[in-house]
Write a sequence for this structure.
């Protein structure tokens, strides 16, 4: 009789470690690939312009077009010679009115859709100034993008954040602690020592300091060192001595 021994199933070290390597931000080529990788690490960096002036302009044009169609329809009704056509839509044989009503329906649907999109755009939370400054500092220090293509960050009043809002009191405390560390604790600002692990994850040129504020986790496959993962807000600051 042959006795067969069955070993219990177990995961070999190789099978456990067979996960895709974590990509670092500097692994991406300079330019939009690297800038997009930076934005993907932190929700509050998703900033965009609302284009309020353009939205107002287009909304006014669509509104005026409907106003003109409304006036034309009123005029057609006023000049209608057949009372039957006005009192029974099924019997209406006025081609101009039928065409106008179809055009009005199309324009109204477009107007309503644009009004709803504008409402959603205006409902986005405003961008926080420290997020804007962080991106401006990083771009200034790296020169990753052409200056004219980063000018959107200068439209502070109409910049919106696509990230959900967090507790404003907590964010205020984070910002204060962060600013005090940068201002008074030189060890925190020493790029060669205290921030060295972070430099392996995010490109940090001379005079540009990247760190994380509270509540951060790994995002989109980008790694951050353990002592800096307490940051939901990656920000960069220029040193002023």
């Amino acid at each position: 009789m042959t006795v067969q021994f069955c070993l219990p199933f177990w995961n070999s070290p190789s099978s456990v470690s067979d996960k895709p390597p974590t990509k670092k931000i500097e692994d991406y080529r300079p330019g939009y690939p690297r800038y997009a990788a930076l934005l993907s690490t932190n929700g509050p960096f998703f900033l965009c312009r609302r284009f309020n002036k353009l939205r107002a302009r287009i909304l006014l044009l669509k509104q005026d077009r409907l106003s003109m169609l409304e006036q034309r329809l009123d005029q057609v009704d006023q000049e209608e010679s057949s009372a039957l056509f006005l009192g029974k839509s099924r019997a209406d044989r006025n081609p101009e009115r039928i065409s106008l009503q179809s055009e009005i329906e199309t324009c109204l649907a477009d107007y309503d859709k644009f009004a709803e999109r504008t409402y959603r755009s205006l409902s986005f939370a405003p961008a926080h100034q420290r997020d804007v400054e962080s991106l401006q500092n990083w771009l200034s220090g790296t020169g990753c993008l052409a200056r004219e293509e980063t000018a959107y960050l200068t439209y502070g009043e109409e910049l919106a954040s696509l990230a959900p809002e967090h507790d404003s009191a907590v964010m205020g405390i984070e910002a204060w602690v962060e600013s005090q560390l940068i201002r008074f604790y030189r060890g925190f600002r020493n790029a060669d020592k205290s921030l060295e692990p972070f430099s392996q994850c995010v490109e940090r040129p001379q005079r540009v300091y990247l760190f994380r504020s509270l509540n951060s986790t790994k995002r989109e496959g980008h790694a951050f060192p353990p002592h800096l993962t307490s940051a939901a807000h990656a920000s960069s600051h220029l040193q002023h001595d």
Observations:
- DSSP finds nine helices and five strands in the chain.
- The first helix runs from residue 13 to 16.
